[in-house]
Design a protein that fits this description.
Length: 73
């Protein structure tokens, strides 16, 4: 999973989340921001969202941001 969109899709599928709003609640992002990640308009997830996601999910912030390292904590 090289792109932010691929990683977000993977996280949503793994967490059984269908809605962009629900995913946004996990990281403090708006539905619009999540939509832009999925569409590729925003290429990188800001670290503040990635670390919040790391707190609220089993995913590693480094992987969320860069697509490198272990996927899960």
């Amino acid at each position: 999973m090289k792109t932010t969109a691929e990683r977000v899709e993977h996280m949503m599928k793994t967490l059984h989340i269908e809605g962009q709003t629900e995913f946004g609640l996990l990281c403090g992002a708006s539905r619009s921001t999540v939509n832009q990640w999925l569409s590729g308009r925003i290429k990188n997830i800001d670290p503040r969202y990635a670390f919040k996601l790391e707190e609220n999910s089993p995913f590693n912030a480094k992987w969320i941001i860069l697509g490198e390292g272990k996927i899960r904590k």
